[in-house]
Amino acid sequence: MNALIIVAISIVVLGGGYLLYGRWLVKTWGVDPNAKTPAYEKEDGEDYIPTNSLVVFSHQFSSIAGAGPITGPIIACMFGWLPALLWILIGSVFFGAVQDFTSMYASVKTKGKTIGSIIEDYIGKTGKTLFLIFEWLFSLLVIAAFADMVAGTFSGFAPDTGAKIYANGGTASMTMLFIFGAVIFGFFMKYAKPKGGVMAACGIVFTAVLMLIGLNFPLYADKGTWLAVIFAYLFIAAALPMWVMIQPRDYLSTFLLLTMIAGAVIGLLVMHPSINLPAVTSFNVNGKMLFPMLFVTIACGAVSGFHSLVSSSTSSRQIKNEKDMLPIGYGAMLLESLLAVVALCVAGAAADPITHAAAQGTPFAIFSRGVASFLVQIGMPQDAAMCVMNMAVSTLALTSLDAVARIGRIAFQELFGQGSSSVAKFLSNKYISTIITLACGCVLSLGGYNNIWPLFGSANQLLAALVLISLAVFLKCTGRQGWMLYIPMFVMLAVTFTALVQSIISIVVKLGSSNFVFMTDGLQLIVAVLLVALGIMVAASCLKTLFGKKGNSEKATSDTAV
C-alpha cells in the first residue's frame, strides 16, 4: 500500500467526520453565539481569559498532541498497519473528538466547571471526590512519563562513551530559548494586541530566529540536570497566569508542530514510499492480544482521557464564543489523528522492504529519523534536520507536561478547596498544591519512561471511559440526547479494565522474584490497584445516575436555557 493513498483516505474520513458528525452534534445539542461565555463571566486574568480562537486552538492542539500520537501508532504496528489505521480513524471521529468536544461543551455550559465539579452537580460529592483522586493520580503518571522522556531527549552525553551529542544539545538549547522567548511573546500578545495575521507572521519569524540561535549554541548537561530543570519549569508554568507562558508557548509550538506535519506530508509526496509493514500480522504478538492492547496502545490519535481534562480545565475558560467550540474541541482532535496517521506511514516506510520487519529503535527515534530523512531530501542539512525533529518531539511532550501540571494542581486544589480547616486551606494553596503534585510526579519518574508508559495507557483510556459516562449523565440531566456516547463508554470500560487487570497480574507474578523492584514494580502495582478501585467506584456511581429512573429536572431546566 502506498503511503499517499493512506494519507488521502484519512484526510477524507477525518474531514467528513468534522463536516457531518461534528456539525450534527452541534445541531443536536445547540450552541448560542450570543451567549456570554465563562471567559467573560469569570474573567480573572489567570485562568479565565477571553482569547482569540486561533490562540485557543493552538493551546488545545499543542496540549493534547503529546507523545501519544507518535508512540502509540508505531508500537501498535506489531499488529499490522490496518488495525492501527482503522482504530485511529474510527476512534477519532466517533470516540475521541466527541469526548473532547463534549467535555468543552459541558464546561462552557456550566460556567467553566471542570469534569469533577460537573460530576458533583449531577452525581454527587462522593463521585466528585473519587474522580478528582483518579484525575490527580493520572496527572502524576503523565508528569512522570513525559518528564523522563524529555530529559532523555535533552541529555547531551552518550551513556557509554560520554561523548557530546550535538542533536540533543541543540534540541535542549532551542527548547530553553523557546520557553524564555514565549514569555516575551506573551507580553507582546497581551499589550500590543496584534491582529491575527500580524501575530501569526511575528510568531513564525520569532520561532525561526530562536531555532537558528539554538542550533548554533547547543547546551550540554546530563539527564539528571535536565530533569531538575524540567520540574522547575513545570512549577512556573503551573503557577503563572495562562497568558504569561502557556498560551504563547502553545501558540508558537503550533507553528513548529504544523511544520513537522507539513514536512512529513511533503516528504511523502516527494518520495511516495510504500508501507513495508504487513497489513495484519497476528491477533497475538509475543503474548499481547490485539484486544485490549491495540486500543490501549493507541490513545492519543484515537481517544484519550487526558484530552477531556485540557478541554474542560483550561481551553473552556478561554473560549470567546460558543461557536468556536466545534473547531477547537472537535477539530483539534482530528488534526492530532492526522499526525497519528503520518506517524504510522513513517514507521511503515522505515520498515525493511524485504523482510517487512519493523525499524529498530524507540518510536521517537524511528519517527525523527524518518521525517528528518524527508527534510534532507528537500535540502535541509542532516544535523539541523535531526535537531528540528528532536525539538518537535520534545515540544509535543512539554506542551502536554505544562498543561497536565496545571491540571494536576487544579485537581488537588479542588480536593481540599471546600474544607474550612487550616490544613485544607494550606493544601489548597496554589503554590503548595503545585509543589506536592510535582514532587509526587518526580518520585514516580524514577521508574523510567518505559516502565510507566504501559500503566499510563490503561489509566488514560479508563479516564476516557469515566469522562464519557459523566458526560452522558450531564446530557441526560440537561435534557439533551446522549445515546451517541453509550457505545464509546462501554467499549472503553471493557478495554481498560481488561488491560489494567492484566497489568496487575503481570506485576503480582513478579512478587518475590529478583526481578521485582519496588521503585518501579511496587509503585506501579499500588497505582494500578488504586486506579481500578477508583474506576469501579466512579463508574458505578455514574452508571447508577445515568440509568436510574430519576433525573435532575431543576438542573435540566436551568442548563437547557443557557
What does this structure look like?
The chain has 562 residues and is mainly α. It has one domain (3-560): Amino acid/polyamine transporter I, CATH 1.20.1740.10. The protein contains 22 helices and two strands. A two-stranded antiparallel sheet has the order 1-2. Strand 1 (284-285) and strand 2 form a beta hairpin. The longest helix is centred in the C-terminal third of the chain and has 36 residues, at 382-417. It is globular, with a radius of gyration of 22 Å.
List the keywords.
single chain; 562 residues; mainly alpha; Amino acid/polyamine transporter I; two-stranded antiparallel sheet; 22 helices
- On the 0-100 scale, what is the average pLDDT? 87
Number of helices: 22
The protein's oligomeric status is single chain
Look at the structure and name the CATH superfamily: Amino acid/polyamine transporter I
CATH hierarchy: architecture: Up-down Bundle
The parts where pLDDT drops under 50 for at least 5 residues are: 551-562
User: Helix share of residues?
Assistant: over 70%
Which topology does CATH recognise? Answer: Amino acid/polyamine transporter I
- Total strands: 2
Q: N-to-C terminal Cα separation, in Å?
A: 49 Å
The biggest sheet, with number of strands, parallel, antiparallel or mixed sense and barrel status, is:
2 strands, antiparallel
Total individual domains: 1
**Percent of sequence in beta strands:** under 5%
Task: Return the CATH class.
Answer: Mainly Alpha
**Overall morphology:** globular
H-E order = HHHHHHHHHHHEEHHHHHHHHHHH
